[in-house]
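## Example pair
The file below holds two records. Each record gives the amino-acid sequence first, followed by its structure token line.
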Amino acid sequence: MVRAPFYKINERIRAPKVRVIDQKGEQLGILATNEALKKAREKGLDLVEVAPSAEPPVAKILNYKKWLFQKEKQKKEKKREKRSELKELRIGPNIGDHDLERRVSRAEDFLKAGDKVKLTVFFRGRQRVHPEVGLEKINRVTKLLKEVGKPEKDPARSARGYEVILVPVKGG
């Protein structure tokens, strides 16, 4: 279980004086702790020590539960922003129509989630004699996914087949 950071609130603040910031973000100056607490109570809010190591400590007048909720929401949002992975889907040149549809729907899910998709058509043995079949499969998949993803570059020939990286379309 992840523990939330501990903030001193209201009567738990032991510093004799604190620098007070109101709910609008304006500084009220350095006040005695009991006076700052009285101002917070008048507004129906909490006095929260946000910078205990400062001299004097910084305290804000705010709704503590709402503030914690917003901080948690921002943290989750940052994690979501960072997460953009490269997902790989491999298909053979002789893949069946239904199997190809399943791969396309998986790729669509990945693209809608904001991930890049690397689509690889791989050849085995004698399949390498007909690379145009693999290129046709890649072009078919990119046409099916044109609403949610677009190719970063044209399909490229690799050692064992063709590869293309699809990136999400904005607003898709």
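Second record, same layout:
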Amino acid sequence: MNYSIRTATAADLTSVLTLNESVVPHVNSLTSTDVQDFLEKAAYFKVACNDSDQVLGFLIGLAPDTVYDSPNFRWFCGHYENFAYIDRIAIASSARRQGMAEALYADFADSSRQWAKHLCCEVNLRPSNPGSLAFHERLEFTQVGRQEIHNGAKEVALMLKEL
């Protein structure tokens, strides 16, 4: 499958929101306001598109100085100084297992190497997301912590990779 990675625009937000909601509970649900906020404040917000410019995937990444009220992001802020945080990634089911997620991760890592020493994210342990855990382990992320969130409804592995 041919695809290209480009910076997200306001015209992409409906597609991004639809794609995000299609992969809940592996990522948290968003509102259109949330997606607009990410467009304005994320250090990295890119989409992967096919030849027809249809959004097939996206990655949202944050710098440590971003104002963001996520318990997982705050955990990394409390433990590391120079990190690039992957808030979420979503790939359309029709585009999975074709290298798109890995390409987005590599692009984010490349774009953040000048200001970050670590690439960070979390992976759901409850509800379980074994595919994501295997993906991150394959990319040489290691678990550096774990925490329960949402009043114990979720448990996440806090993952880190040196850049």
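Notes on the second record: The CA atoms of residues 46 and 155 lie 27 Å apart. Residues 4-117 form a domain with the Aminopeptidase fold (CATH 3.40.630.30).
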